[in-house]
């Protein structure tokens, strides 16, 4: 058993297993009382069902936050904007020109409204009117570019959802098969399908990164052989 545990030390799906032993009792001989030694009565699985469920629930939370962060990053990129944590202002595509770029809207908006301020201070200057018109056209162009990017992003998000849905469907099928195998293997020997249980827990944790779901016991399953009902997170 020690060799098996060592062989799986780098296997993230594996939970350590220990031999369960008990005393063989004692006997009286002419030399006195002697122990009958120890005998192996089974194998224990160092896995906690409550802890496993906590891991699955927290993985769901992490998966949801990661999905939101990924979408927010895509939107920032499409807008040409990046939110600075060091200030309350939006930085446009952090680059070598001090954090400003021509791909976003913030700088174009600033230039557009600054042009009105310049005109207010020197209303008779024709050059200020030309600058205002130029900045207005630049702002319109930026808005059109961002609109195209957001439309493409919408298609990308739908594609990502379809990919995640396919992965989740495969995992659900794998969990269903594992449940059936565990049920057959443990018929008369509850808790003995330890490797299959490890595989199922790993599949549940991967599934938790994609969808929200509940693990529950059905009437066709034992308490130790739960099924799961998903609630889609990104669809």
Helix content: 40-55%
Radius of gyration: 32 Å
**Roughly what is the average pLDDT, rounded to an integer?**
78
What structural class do helix, strand and pairing data support? Answer: alpha+beta
Q: How many extended strands?
A: 8
Number of helices: 5
Percent range for β-strand residues: 15-25%
Helix-strand topology string:
HEEEEHEEHHHEE
The strand line-up of the biggest sheet is 1-4
Q: Mind describing the biggest β-sheet?
A: 2 strands, antiparallel
Straight-line N-to-C gap: 45 Å
Low-confidence stretches: 86-102, 220-226, 229-235
Topology:
Layout: H1 2-7, E1 17-23, E2 26-29, E3 32-35, E4 38-45, H2 49-79, E5 81-83, E6 90-92, H3 106-121, H4 126-185, H5 194-208, E7 211-216, E8 227-232
Antiparallel strand pairs: 1-4, 2-3, 5-6, 7-8
Helix pairs in contact: 2-4, 2-5, 3-4, 4-5
Attribute tags:
single chain, 235 residues, alpha+beta, two-stranded antiparallel sheet, rod-shaped
Overview of the structural elements:
This protein is an alpha+beta fold and 235 residues long. Helix content is 54%, strand content 17%. It has helices spanning 2-7, 49-79, 106-121, 126-185, 194-208, and strands at residues 17-23, 26-29, 32-35, 38-45, 81-83, 90-92, 211-216, 227-232. The protein is rod-shaped, with a radius of gyration of 32 Å. The chain starts with a helix and ends with a strand. The model is unreliable at 86-102, 220-226 and 229-235 (pLDDT under 50).
